[in-house]
Amino acid sequence: MMLRRGFILFLPRLVGLLVVACCSMSIVYMLACTPKGDNQQLALPRVHSPTAKEGYEAILQEREEKHRNYIISLKKQIAQLKAELQGRTEQLKNMQNQYPDSLDIWLDHSKPEKAQANLLAFLRSQVDKAEVHSGVKLSTEYAAVPFESFTLQKVYQLETGLTRHPEEKPVRKDKRDELIEVIELAVGSLNKPDGVSKAKPHVYTASDFIEGIYRTEKNKGTLYELTFKGDAKHQFKKIVLFRPFGPVMKVKNENVNMADTLINVIVPLAKRASKFRQFMQNFREMGIQQDGRIHLTVVYFGKEQMNEVKSILENTSKSANFKNFTFIQLNEEFSRGKGLDVGARFWKGNNVVLFFCDVDIYFTAEFLNSCRLNTQPGKKVFYPVLFSQYNPSIIYGHHDSIPSLEQQLIIKKETGFWRDFGFGMTCQYRSDFINIGGFDLDIKGWGGEDVHLYRKYLHSNLMVIRTPVRGLFHLWHEKQCLDELTQEQYKMCMQSKAMNEASHGQLGMLIFKQEIETHLQRQKLSSKKT
User: Fold this and answer.
1) pLDDT in tens, 455-503
2) Buried b (16+ CB within 10 A) or exposed e, 160-198
3) Residues 6+ apart with CB under 8 A from 339
């Protein structure tokens, strides 16, 4: 690139020198061809001299010969200059072809002849260095670069800045322009004829776009993964694009058929029968009725409320004609990691997507598809960032009544926050979970086991997809931090409890409630006096 810049800077000087040379040659030619003044003319023979005619003709012939030779010489020099100028022009063209402007070249892997070798080698090295085809070993959980997700209308972001908006609408102009460009390029790629199929192709539009995720590695580029509706139900089109600090490169264009991809939802549980009833209502509507490709594994600790939990499960099975469930009972102290590990290893069927879930989670059918699309055996595991609900009694305390659960599940800074410190809800193939070594079963009680598993994946070559999702919610419930927890677990529990109650502004209103009421009373008294 430095060579290219240097040559471009030198080019105006070269052209200027050639112009000056041509002008100089033209001036010399004019001077040579112009007759000399009277004082400089050669003496001619007298007219009446016997040799006058012959002498005059000889002088004219001599001067004509000199001019002819000089013209031939000038023509040769002009021809040489033209040849040199043409050679310089060819060098410039070759230099431009070798280092083309990134805005004037279409980087399409299917037509590599359109892109020059040096630029393509550089751009491909950027793709290879980024986490596009495979994961990279990372030292800590803080080293993972999270994705952000987006639709045609909104961007769901972790880095919210001063606004602290977890979702952004209208999207900031620079981000909107960037994402529109990516969607349009993906649509154009989908509509590009493959030259193989003779059937009438489906014409894709932006309305077929479902969801995308993207992240930027600042020293490599931006990776985009876009999902479109497929040709049939449960079929999707997935486009992977990469922007290596220039035009977007198409990395992958593949058909994704999820019609037969089963998800095994594993829920560890102890007591909490009322919460399980609420969970099963969500599971029935989203998992059984809308999705239908789902299995439920409940790992129950102890015997207290066990019969009530089994009754809820059996009633759902009968009313929804649902047989794809497993109930495992363990006579020991509750351990979330132990429950999930036992549930995952209990499965005896083919390789399956595991969704580690809690009883206080609400998910949508769209999330289940995201779970499938962002996992790949031996390549990718999915760590969604869920939206955690604040205490409804605080959020809606000034209302006449608390809205229904479905009306509460909206993504706004007043209603909740992205739970970016939590790693408990995760999707991965069972084979990857087994190969990574599963959970650390020495961890007892609440917290710690999910972070340990997350770090295992980060230390492997698997790609960890970390992104906020709009269809996964943590429902508020009063959190109790037991004395039996270790010091670190108790600290984590209390931090989680504090963050779950309300936003900073709402908590501030509660803290300064007395001061606010005093101020209002003073205002009333002041208005009465006036």
Assistant:
1) 999 999 999 999 999 999 999 888 788 888 888 888 878 877 777 888 8
2) eeeeebbbbeebeeeeeebbeebbebbbebbeeeeeeee
3) 266, 268, 269, 299, 301, 330
The answer to whether 380 touches 374, Cβ cutoff 8 Å, is: yes
Query: How many other CB atoms sit within 10 Å of the CB of residue 325?
Result: 17
Scan for tokens 């979702």, then name that residue.
167
| Helix/strand/coil for 78 | helix
The CA distance from 478 to 280, in Å, is: 20
pLDDT band (50, 70, 90) for residue 95: low
**Single pTM value for the model:** 0.67
DSSP string, 402-457: PPPHHHH----TTTEEE-TT---SEEEEHHHHHHHT---TT--BSSSHHHHHHHHH
CA dist list (Å): 108 to 103, 179, 230, 515: 13, 19, 23, 65
Domains of the chain, first to last: 134-190+204-257 (no CATH), 263-508 (3.90.550.10)
pLDDT in tens, 290-324: 999 999 999 999 999 999 999 999 999 999 999 99
Residue 330 banded pLDDT, cuts 50, 70, 90: very high
DSSP string, 52-63: HHHHHHHHHHHH
Q: What H or E segment, with its residue span, contains residue 337? A: helix 336-346
Q: Which of 189, 239, 250, 234 is nearest to 213 (CA)?
A: 239
**Mean pLDDT over residues 401-409, rounded?**
86
